[in-house]
Amino acid sequence: MRVMVTGASYGIGGATCLKIARDAAARGEKAKIVATATGRRPDLLELIAELKSLGADAKAITGDLSDEAMPKRLVDEAVEFCGGLDGLVSNAAGRHQAPLAELEVKDWDRMLAINVRATWLLGKAALPALKASQGAIVAVTSIAGTFPHANYGPYSVSKAALICLIAQMAQEWGPHGVRINGVAPGITRTRNSEVVYWDAEVAAKRAAVVPLRRVAMAAEQAAAITFLLSKEASYINGQNLTVDGGFAQSIMAFVPGRLPPSQSKM
Asked: Which of 18, 148, 201, 256 would bridge 156 by S-S if both were Cys, CB 3.0 to 4.6 A apart?
């Protein structure tokens, strides 16, 4: 398995890299993984070391995906290192918290560039290699792409656009044997969000709103991503898989008050 993963730190991206490496080792194979991030953060280097300890060939590449030239450069380096590509995971994303009435155009444009345009440009650059391998792309979306998150600027808008982009890419590139799908995480505990869970009361409240009564771990999102990359998902194309423990569909549980029982008449 030869895969490039963007936004690869010890969150969903990192968990995906680790699962790919472990699954390949379990099959007696060696994974080739290129993990990218905006900067050479310590956790990226830690991830590469851990992937190598699992028997994978791994390389870290850094670059800012808001630069329109960067996606192709990253893909070209990944194809060269891996000798081709079987999978692309577009996981990198940006958030800019601000009410729409106060948001600056430059911040809107940067978020759309990272959260939507980069997936298109990554996929466009990777398409020849993926056509050759009959590979797959998985983009990490969000339940916010269906249920807007107020005061997060263009985040929800960009994720909604990404969901549509996935469907369009699947329509256009499916005839080449390349599958494109999305995974929409719900509330997920990662190293970046860990500070939220230091408050036991907040952690309990978050778990309580999920029908499964717990928050997802990054490894659970990685399991969905790697499934969609695999040949076991060979006939799944253009889908956005929600992995949220049933949270998004539980909205009616939060409506205060109960209506009286209906009275049927014969």
From this structure: 148
Give tens-digit pLDDT for 56-94: 999 999 999 999 999 999 999 999 999 999 999 999 998
Tokens 């990662």 belong to which residue?
A: 190
Residue 83 phi, psi (nearest 5): 75, 35
pTM metric for this prediction: 0.93
pLDDT in tens, 147-169: 988 888 899 999 999 999 999 99
Exposure of 207 by Cβ count < 10 A (0-12 exposed, 13-18 middle, 19+ buried)? middle
Separation CA 122–CA 61 (nearest Å): 14
Active site residue 155: yes
CB-CB neighbours of 191 under 10 Å: 13
Q: CATH code at 33?
A: 3.40.50.720
Range of the domain at 65: 2-190+218-245
Evaluate whether 221 touches 12 at the Cβ level (below 8 Å).
yes
**149, part of any domain:** yes
Single out the catalytic residue among 10, 152, 155, 197.
155
Which tokens go with 225?
A: 């991503």
Among 98, 219, 107, 93, smallest CA distance to 145 is for: 93
Q: Is 201 among the domain residues?
A: no
